Amino acid sequence: MKILVVCSDFPYPADHGGRVDTWGRIKVLAELGWTIHLVVCGKQMPTPSDMQVVYRYVEDIKLCERRSKLVDLLYMVPMQVQSRNELRYVNIDEDYDYVLLEGDYVYPILKNPLIKHANAILRVHNDEAVYFKALARSTPNRIHKLYYHMESSKFSILQKKMLKKVDKYLFISNKEFVNFQTLHPTTKSLFLPPPVTKETFLKSSFESKHVVFIGSLFMPNNREAIQWYLEHIHPSMLKEPEYKFIVAGNSRKQSLSWLDGYDMTNVIVHDTPESLDDIYQQGYLFVNPMQNGAGVKLKTIEAIQNGLPVISTSIGCEGTGLVDNEHIMVADSPEEFYLRIKLLFDHPPRARTLLESSQRFIRTHYDHKEVLNRYINSLHPSYHMKQVL
User: Fold this and answer.
1) Do 229 and 134 lie in a common domain?
2) Which of 12, 99, 148, 386 could form a disulfide with 136 if both were Cys (CB 3.0 to 4.6 A apart)?
3) Predicted confidence (pLDDT) per residue in 102-118, tens digit
4) Name one Pfam family in it (predicted).
């Protein structure tokens, strides 16, 4: 079986949520014996070393340039989509059993005359209309807020167009899958959890008092989450001996001036670290205090795999299937959020039990390979994929 995977960003290195999901799926498809070709229309060109890593799993890579212009704002399609219009003209010189679109951004590939729409599958990373509306709530910048509202409205229109071209959907969020399936019961849609990226899950020693947040520092919803924690939780936590708040993520060389004005005592910021392993290893617990967002917050799943129990807002664990007080601790008010951290700090066995329960849940329910295998077989019952790795 041969598949064309179309991405809006080069999938490696897997240093943020979207890449983690896409890169994990590429490796799973390779393990299942697929021949994979990759088309990428992104802003940053990959390095030769990154290309070499991806070539271990894919047979062919085509790169096209993402071209952003102010005039793109005048189009009825979202700017994130219009800027990838080069996908319409990519030379697709082979036939594929399926074409996997990694998100709405790569919609222009469906206007490529060499693509067979009947074989298109859309991976839904977010309900983009909801996601951009959430970004508008998160940013204090009025111009950005207007842009996000415009994109949200345009994505609402685009999603209706997509329904005429695509009837196969793979949702990363169980909540968004259920909502979509209720509205569109005839589509071949499925909840496909994000891939588990570690063969062996790690476990914290629970010796430090490090509270960890890892997420893209250029995203307004992550910035808002960090600011909320610094304003409402961090001052109370400073009473805890040896406590530190560790923040890490890719800033894309943007200023961190949005942290100005907060008490940064015992706060350590790792801007675009080469590796997150030591940060996870030295952590006690992970917080995801997001106030706005959509889809599954992969940072929550990644933290559990890397050995940290999670305390999150309702938004931060939305769509994961994780249950409050069983796999994760959920708190939306500052007082409750602080008390949950204090509970796990004061009772390491409780923190250890919570982590073990969440890791069991992910092992059981996040079997990306098995779910994807069953789904493809249901679409193409005459062909049974053979696992080769």
Assistant:
1) no
2) 148
3) 999 999 999 999 887 66
4) Glyco_trans_1_4
